[in-house]
Amino acid sequence: MQFHSWTMKANFLRFVFLPFLCLAGVQALHAQEPAERIIVAYVTSWTETMPDVSLMTHINYAFGHVTDSFDGVRIDNVERLRRIADAKGKVKVCLSVGGWGSGRFSEMASTEARRKAFAASCAAAVDEYGLDGIDIDWEYPTVPAAGISASPRDTEHYTLLMKELRSALGPDRLLTLASACHARHIDFPAILPFVDWVNVMAYDMGRPPLHNAALYASPHTGRFTADEAVKSHLAAGVPADKIVMGMPFYGHGKEGYGDFVDYKDLPAPRSGHQALWDAEAKVPYYADAEGKPVLSFDNVRSIGEKCLYILKNGLRGGMYWEYGCDNGTAELARTVAEQLMPRPFISAKAVRPASYAGSQPRFRALLYYSEQVEEAHLDFTRQAITFFRELAFGRGFILDLATSLPEDLEPYDVIIMPDVAPSQPAERSRFERYMEAGGGWVGFHGAGYNDLSSNWDWFRNFLGGGRFLCNNWPPQPALMEVESRTHPVTRNLPQQFVAPESEYYQWDPDPRSNPSVQVLVSLSEANFPFGIKDVVFGGDFPVVWTNRDYRMIYLNMGHGSHCFSDATQNLLFVNALRWVVSQSSKGDPFLR
Ligand code: ZN
Fold first, then answer.
1. pTM of the model
2. Structural domains for the chain
């Protein structure tokens, strides 16, 4: 409620005073462009992973420290900092000075001479390594909790330090800070003129049985949540567009899970423990037999919720600690990038006339099919041809049909296979070459079918490694769970939908066990036992997935004449085609 009333007050003030300000000629308020959203990734000196710079706007390199003589900065692992600065591309890199247990700030900030010397040393490091600014992680002024020296005058000295740093760095370099969730110890109104934004460390707010980084309060949270941390900063005078909300890529555990657990090392729940989602706090956790958290962490879903919060509340952006904790496919960093990466602004001048869309097919698709398939697969194929032809109506794209794969597949941005994959060796190797060279594929149902007699290992691996295991029979409607709320293919779908009647395949091994596979839709457990004549009794049941090593998506529906009868499922099909095409190595044709 505090947040709400603060916003109301701010709006009220704006409403009452702005007209007078305008009359007084304060045009700058209007001239100012809204600040662009940012993603700040902490990258540490002690990890090896090189950050994927397409997933962030800023890197804070951790750490530098105040020197023993209190008058300069020294940097951990300068070789790694140099490598990161060399590879940064358009991303801006700041040196983060401090961190938990990094001291000597109090002594350094206490005299003007030392502040000046320290600030000059920071500015020199920025120049030497080609950096873009400095991030101060003094944890925390006036508090010796981390075993560092502290003084009651730290708050006052902190302000003077920020002023000195701004003067040494000049107006164009970045100066930011990491701030504790309660927003105490720092005089924000005094430092705001000198700093670009405030990184709020909205984590380590609890350890099991309390959550590490709940978004909202629940029976498993302590005094602070990420939401409270943001409200505290607003109340301390930091405007929303200077608040960057932190998110942890690690969790805290007990009872054998370890105190710090990186997302990449997330273990399965131990026996007697259960993986749960706290619907109030919006974070996942493992619980003991009594339902108490024993491991608290963040995953794609909770990070997605936090990004939505950042967007809804107009915050400047998101920060995370730290890139090296993410898994091999940078799943969490990707989630943040998908939601928070600033989109290019399209100016009125760049808008094309309507005739452009109608006169210029934007991409070329090939629909590969066969009439030599079982009747129910032929029904689906015929309807798929009609469906995709209608999508191409008005020559938005060119749809070619073929019952054998042409020699030259290069002109095609995507190949659609409604219910069959090639069986001839020449066509198979043509398809392999096409996909390995960055081709696009949307496959349905029978197109993915493979068993021991298929003799096409490349294709099985391409699909994620699974062979046909079993199926439901007869074809039935099924309740589907949408697993990703951030992926472009599923983000506008409801959490659950009923897919029209079809036959579904279960796979062995489970495609989900392949780290390159991202499952987007799966069959809900509520369907089990699934089938009448052939019954599937349980187990993981992915239905739609992508193998991230290729530009592909597989959708297991596609049996019989009902599959195009549901608007939600049709939207899924359109999204799937559109997403595969948009990833084209020739560039996104929808933006051309
Ligand atoms: Zn079938």
1. 0.59
2. 38-250+297-340 (3.20.20.80), 364-587 (3.40.50.880)
